[in-house]
Amino acid sequence: MRETPLILIVDDEIIIREILAKMIHALGYSALQAANSTEAQHIIRQHQPDVILLDMIMPGVDSMEVLKSVRTDERLKHISVILISGIDDLETVATFIEAGVDDFLPKPFNMALFTLKVNSCLAHMQSNNAAQQAQLRMENFCKELSHDLNNALTGIIMTAELLLMNASSEQTKEHIAGIIDSSELINRLIKKHRQTLSTNTNAET
């Protein structure tokens, strides 16, 4: 998430957009405005806001289309979407929630409730980002560790094979062969772990 959160307001009424923009600025955040779905989708793709305030009912505008365009795009689906509406239509609200809306903000707006819901979405996004960064650090650590272990085991195997060639007694040869077998087993396990890690990483991206 950027240093100053960016919030997009999608509403066909300029008065509503201006009210919300002032509320956003009062929180110290930045605001962008869109009057229709075309403007909204252009701004979303270009700026990737942290939160979208999406009016549920707008004449000639398909709010569900905006929501689905966000939720079906891998680059955008992390964006929080808060549905705003002055209509007490719980069935429609439920439909939007099922489609991926994160929260609902009723009109007329209450500053305390507005602050709570926006900050909650931002905190959730920040938490997800922190978790993703921690996972990335762990994956990098595991990759480096497996690489170092693989190099060390390769050295052990090569040294053991040289010793095996020069070993004089059968007992010594058996011990060295056991070292080689164990090292090769560990090496295979490390390679399997690296393949699993790579597969999981590719699946998530």
Strand content range: 5-15%
Radius of gyration: 28 Å
| Morphology call | rod-shaped
Order of helices and strands: EHEHEHEHEHH
Helix content: 55-70%
- The unreliable regions are none
Brief sketch in words of this structure:
With 205 residues, the protein is α/β, with parallel strands linked by helices.
Descriptive overview:
- The structure is a single chain.
- By secondary structure, this protein is an alpha/beta fold.
- The protein folds into 2 domains: 6-109, Rossmann fold, CATH 3.40.50.2300; 133-204.
- It is built from 6 helices and 5 strands; from the N terminus they run βαβαβαβαβαα.
- It has helices at residues 14-26, 37-47, 63-71, 90-99, 111-166, 170-204; strands spanning 6-10, 30-34, 51-55, 80-85, 103-106.
- A 5-stranded parallel β-sheet has the order 2-1-3-4-5, sandwiched between helices.
- α1 links the parallel β1 and β2.
- α2 packs parallel to α3.
- The chain is rod-shaped and about 95 Å long.
- The model has no long low-confidence stretch (mean pLDDT 86).
What's the topology here?
Layout: E1 6-10, H1 14-26, E2 30-34, H2 37-47, E3 51-55, H3 63-71, E4 80-85, H4 90-99, E5 103-106, H5 111-166, H6 170-204
Helix pairs in contact: 2-3, 5-6
